[in-house]
């Protein structure tokens, strides 16, 4: 049911698009959900979806009610170069979570951990739209491995600080956390992490 | 209602103790739950609790249906000395999660993230009974800070591997993960992490 793309009834269309987007992202994941399928479910023209939201990326940010678009921070984190990248990322990550808007991110953690669909779509979005962009801007080997390792540390940091409230992480300042955790992210971004199939290492354990 | 400590009716007492323990650990946390209070709720003598379970620590492991007692692995991880400690811990941690018994640990992650009470009691148990023991065996500065940082990486690793299933972490072998992540834990255990109040650093960010 294509609409004209003009004012009357558009606020209703916007809500229908958001509802359809949530359903498709949860069911198909971020990668496989398409603007066309979302438009069909919402019974609007795909052009209207793009008119309202600009892109699938921006539609996702709106549908998930993310308090910010994480990809917006990438240029400032990456621009100064590789040196200090880990610390800048921690400081910015914690800064967003600590902000007024970041408070509802704990709900996002809970849904990612509780629901397979939420886990899949956030994993894909986070990997491609955020960490993937940072890592690809570095032009380094093994971008997926590095991105998943960085994700493991940042996700765990958020859980320990905001859910488990383990001290002293819970009360530390963003700068303190940047000092403590930043160099570990830096290693994930830049260090030689060993080969992907370390047969030599295997068996040296127990 | 003290019992005689002998056979008849003891299986019922055991279940009452377990039920009382779950309730007290969830309500009071691990640190503040006492064997005496649990015995009172279960209407048994505290000596019977210790007869069945040995200690509050062991009662917790039984009540939470942990598939293993994590503190049992500490000697083998710590005994060879500080060198390679991070890699040994990752290998053992992942080995337990990958095991048949470890499969239901994902449920534990979910309850820790969903319920304040579960988060508090697991935080206290994990910190004191597991990481605290490892860190105190090292005789190093800032044991709590180091333990909480290690917890952040291990918890995030478990979420990314078993809940979000992010590749290549999801399919990596324990030895691969030990190679990738071990040195980062090693830094948390042994490196100079900066002062706790880095006024100098503060303001150098944005």
Describe the structure.
2 copies of one chain form a homodimer. The first copy, chain A, has 206 residues and is an all-alpha fold. Chain A has 2 domains: 10-63, Homeodomain-like (Arc Repressor Mutant, subunit A), CATH 1.10.10; 70-190, Tetracycline Repressor, domain 2. The first copy, chain A, contains 10 helices and no strands. Chain A has helices at residues 10-32, 35-42, 46-53, 56-63, 74-78, 85-98, 105-114, 116-138, 143-163, 174-190. In chain A, helix 1 (10-32) crosses helix 4 (56-63), helix 6 (85-98) crosses helix 10 (174-190) and helix 9 (143-163) packs antiparallel against helix 10 (174-190). The longest helix of chain A is centred in the first third of the chain and has 23 residues, at 10-32. The model of chain A is unreliable at 1-8 and 196-206 (pLDDT under 50).
Per DSSP, the total helix count of chain A is 10
User: What is CATH's topology name of the largest domain in chain A?
Assistant: Tetracycline Repressor, domain 2
What is the helical fraction of chain A, as a range of percent? 55-70%
Give the number of DSSP strands of chain A. 0
Q: Pairing-aware structural class of the strands and helices of chain A?
A: mainly alpha
Domain count of chain A: 2
The oligomerization state is homodimer
Provide the β-strand percentage band of chain A.
under 5%
pLDDT averaged over residues of chain A: 83
Biggest pleated-sheet summary of chain A: none
Distance between the termini of chain A: 63 Å
CATH class of the largest domain in chain A: Mainly Alpha
Could you state the order of secondary-structure elements of chain A as H and E? HHHHHHHHHH
CATH architecture assignment name of the largest domain in chain A: Orthogonal Bundle
Global Rg of chain A: 20 Å
- The CATH superfamily of the largest domain in chain A appears as Tetracycline Repressor, domain 2
Largest interface: A-B, 57 and 57 residues
Unreliable residue stretches of chain A: 1-8, 196-206
């Amino acid at each position: 049911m294509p609409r004209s793309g003009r004012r009357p009834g558009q606020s209703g269309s916007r809500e229908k698009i958001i509802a359809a987007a949530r359903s498709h992202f949860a069911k198909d994941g971020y990668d496989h959900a398409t603007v066309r399928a979302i438009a069909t479910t919402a019974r609007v023209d795909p052009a209207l979806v793009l008119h309202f939201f600009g892109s699938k990326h921006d539609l996702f940010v709106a549908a998930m009610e993310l308090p910010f678009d994480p990809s917006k921070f990438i240029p400032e984190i990456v621009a100064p170069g590789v040196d200090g990248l880990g610390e800048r990322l921690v400081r910015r990550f914690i800064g967003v979570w600590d902000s007024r808007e970041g408070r509802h991110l704990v709900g996002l953690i809970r849904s990612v951990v509780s629901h397979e669909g939420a886990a899949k779509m956030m994993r894909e979005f986070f990997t491609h739209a955020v960490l993937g962009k940072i890592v690809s801007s570095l032009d380094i080997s093994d971008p997926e491995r590095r991105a998943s390792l960085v994700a493991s540390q940042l996700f765990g940091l958020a859980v320990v600080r905001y859910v488990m409230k383990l001290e002293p992480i819970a009360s530390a300042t963003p700068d303190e956390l940047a000092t403590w955790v930043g160099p570990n992210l830096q290693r994930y971004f830049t260090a030689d992490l060993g080969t992907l199939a370390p047969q030599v290492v295997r068996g040296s354990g127990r």
